[in-house]
């Protein structure tokens, strides 16, 4: 018995819902597809009215409660003990996506990963796509909250930390706490295609928010030593150890803005060069935020 749990916010994606329903029915599962809308714009959630009858359940929230709280609410509202969490902007290309999960659910938490379609994109969206296709989709050793399956009883012991309200690294915290509590985790080849490719500016805005959130998490979760686990903060700490972050102080704000403008306005460079600029930008932002 399976509850598919989908946090929904400002992204229309009926194809995902239809695919999930078809695959579950083909397997003769007892299942539900539970969608909680986190106070989306009215025009972005109208289509959900077509999915208010079984096997679907839609709950509309009057105010946005954030990424951690909505996942906890989904688990609380779920009918069945097996929970499959999927982000609303995903696309399933594997015709046996559900079956693959059920056949490989041999650990406490199994995640399927995230992928990006091999496609051309315009200059305005090149940065997010380039990072996603070349970096994010290849980092499957890390837990991603966009696509994982877990028993409800295990989730209720873990939960997402609702003190973490904003975007960025909340899934890292969940994964680390799961390991610390002794849960066994497995990543399999069962990815969901990430479709919500953001503009260069919007993507960098998310990066800024994520780095700010990272510093807050480091303060809240001192016991996790998250600074030594996240790649960018671990490398920054190493630079700090050798006194090299002092170089970032030289005209830092001006250089940060210059790097940002370069990626927003003129992103279509060699992929390696662009990603190097992106990494340098993050180091400068951490210096601005005073990570020590």
UniProtKB/TrEMBL annotation:
Gene3D superfamilies attached to this UniProt entry: Spore Coat Polysaccharide Biosynthesis Protein SpsA, Chain A
Glycosyltransferase 2-like domain segment(s): 3-157
Domain of life from the UniProt record: Bacteria
Matching Pfam families: Glycos_transf_2
PANTHER family, per the entry: GLYCOSYLTRANSFERASE (PTHR43685), SLR2126 PROTEIN (PTHR43685:SF3)
Protein name: Glycosyltransferase 2-like domain-containing protein
Species of provenance: Pedobacter psychrophilus
């Amino acid at each position: 018995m399976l509850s598919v749990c989908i946090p929904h916010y400002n992204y229309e994606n009926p194809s995902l819902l239809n695919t999930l329903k078809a695959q579950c029915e083909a397997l003769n599962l007892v299942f539900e597809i539970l969608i909680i809308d986190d106070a989306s714009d009215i025009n972005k959630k109208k289509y959900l009215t077509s999915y208010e009858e079984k096997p679907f359940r839609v709950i509309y929230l009057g105010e946005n409660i954030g990424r951690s709280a909505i996942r906890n609410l989904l688990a609380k509202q779920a009918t069945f003990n097996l929970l499959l969490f999927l982000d609303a902007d995903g696309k399933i290309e594997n015709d046996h996506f559900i079956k693959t999960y059920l056949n490989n659910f041999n650990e406490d938490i199994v995640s399927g990963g995230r992928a990006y379609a091999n496609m051309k994109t315009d200059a305005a969206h090149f940065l997010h796509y380039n990072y996603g296709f070349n970096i994010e989709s290849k980092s499957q050793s890390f837990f991603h909250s966009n696509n994982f399956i877990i028993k409800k009883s295990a989730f209720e012991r873990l939960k997402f930390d609702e003190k973490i309200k904003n975007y960025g690294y909340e899934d890292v915290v969940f994964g680390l706490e799961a390991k610390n509590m002794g849960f066994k985790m497995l990543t399999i080849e069962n990815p969901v295609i990430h479709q919500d490719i953001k503009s260069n500016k919007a993507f960098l805005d998310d990066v800024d928010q994520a780095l700010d959130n990272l510093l807050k998490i480091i303060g809240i979760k001192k016991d996790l030593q998250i600074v030594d686990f996240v790649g960018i903060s671990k490398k920054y700490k190493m630079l700090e150890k050798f006194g090299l972050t002092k170089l970032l102080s030289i005209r830092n704000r001006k250089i940060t803005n210059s790097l940002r403008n370069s990626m927003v306005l003129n992103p279509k460079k060699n992929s390696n060069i662009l990603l190097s600029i992106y990494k340098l930008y993050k180091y400068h932002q951490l210096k601005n935020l005073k990570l020590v």
